């Protein structure tokens, strides 16, 4: 390739992130490394890609035209990497998969059963993560595949596939909670009670002052907190049915709920899944079981 893959990636990530510093954080590089890579790409192309006169870099007309070509080059490179893995045909000795509590337990049970039949000698490790934590684990090479609630964009080094399944989320409280005794509850009324909210390790979001909040990095831990009556929580319906059912939790009638959540399967483009990982990806992509 005439142009450095690192420079092409830096260019696309800067556009996606909005600044050299944000791109550097996403790619785990220094800002000077990103700036230098893009400067070299501009020298190779003979055009200026960004107008740097403003606070944040802005694409020039030449940069806008170059962007789609660079994206196509990187996409083709990813396809070639995946083809190389498939041609070699090596099965991983170990596959690490980051699960989201939004995944229906029936799907997981079917997946594990089929995986055991096909790859009995591959060590299968399951991690639990949500949202930004999933992306971080993949970027660090700690896992090969991961599930997360769907979003529109991902870092340039993360591959994504929308799965043909959805997770239903609803509002739950313990039977003894005051909200369980009421009829329909408005969003305004709901906010006057303590919320149990998902808050991942990496995001570490500051809780807005719209009501009292407790947080945890997994839905299963939030479910346990809700069962103990500490507050209300938006939880995956399948998770509640699997681990609590009607024994300890009851749904709160809130307008607009339950809601459906789309799920994406992610992987690190720099370390594409091998034979077993590719099978898992294909299995989930075409899964048509109980939702």
From TrEMBL:
Output the SUPFAM superfamilies linked to this UniProt entry.
Answer: Periplasmic binding protein-like II, Winged helix' DNA-binding domain
Which InterPro entries does the record associate with it? LysR_HTH_N, LysR_subst-bd, WH-like_DNA-bd_sf, WH_DNA-bd_sf
UniProt key word Glycoprotein: no
Looking up PROSITE patterns in the UniProt record yields: HTH_LYSR
Q: Which GO terms describe its molecular function?
A: DNA-binding transcription factor activity; transcription cis-regulatory region binding
Concerning Gene3D superfamilies, the annotation shows: 3.40.190.290, Winged helix-like DNA-binding domain superfamily/Winged helix DNA-binding domain (1.10.10.10)
Q: Which UniProt keywords apply?
A: DNA-binding, Transcription, Transcription regulation
DNA-binding: present as a keyword of the record?
yes
Q: Where is the HTH lysR-type domain?
A: 1-60
Q: Which residues lie in coiled coils?
A: none
Q: Which family does it belong to?
A: Belongs to the LysR transcriptional regulatory family.
* UniProt protein name: LysR family transcriptional regulator
């Amino acid at each position: 390739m005439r142009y450095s893959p690192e420079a092409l990636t830096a260019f696309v990530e800067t556009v996606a992130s909005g600044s050299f510093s944000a791109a550097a954080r996403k790619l785990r590089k220094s800002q000077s490394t990103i700036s230098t890579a893009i400067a070299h790409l501009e020298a190779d192309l003979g055009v200026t890609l960004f107008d740097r006169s403003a606070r944040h870099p802005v694409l020039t007309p030449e940069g806008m035209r170059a962007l789609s070509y660079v994206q196509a080059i990187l996409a083709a490179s990813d396809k070639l990497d995946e083809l190389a893995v498939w041609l070699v045909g090596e099965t991983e000795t170990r596959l690490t998969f980051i699960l989201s509590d939004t995944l229906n337990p029936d799907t997981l049970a079917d997946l594990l059963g089929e995986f055991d039949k096909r790859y009995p000698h591959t060590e299968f490790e399951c991690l639990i993560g949500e949202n930004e934590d999933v992306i971080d684990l993949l970027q660090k090479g700690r896992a090969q595949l991961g599930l997360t609630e769907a979003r529109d964009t991902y870092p340039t080094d993360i591959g994504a596939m929308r799965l043909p399944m959805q997770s239903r989320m609803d509002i739950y409280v313990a039977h003894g909670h005051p909200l369980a005794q009421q009829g329909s509850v408005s969003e305004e009324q709901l906010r006057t009670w303590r919320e149990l909210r998902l808050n991942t390790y990496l995001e570490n979001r500051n809780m807005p002052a719209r009501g009292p909040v407790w947080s945890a990095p997994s839905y299963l831990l939030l479910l346990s907190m809700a069962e103990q009556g500490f507050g209300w929580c938006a939880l995956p319906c399948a998770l509640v049915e699997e681990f609590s059912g009607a024994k300890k939790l009851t749904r709160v009638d809130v307008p607009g709920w339950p809601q459906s959540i789309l799920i994406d399967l992610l992987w690190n483009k720099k370390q594409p899944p091998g034979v077993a990982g590719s099978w898992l990806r294909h299995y989930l992509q075409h899964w048509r079981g109980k939702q």
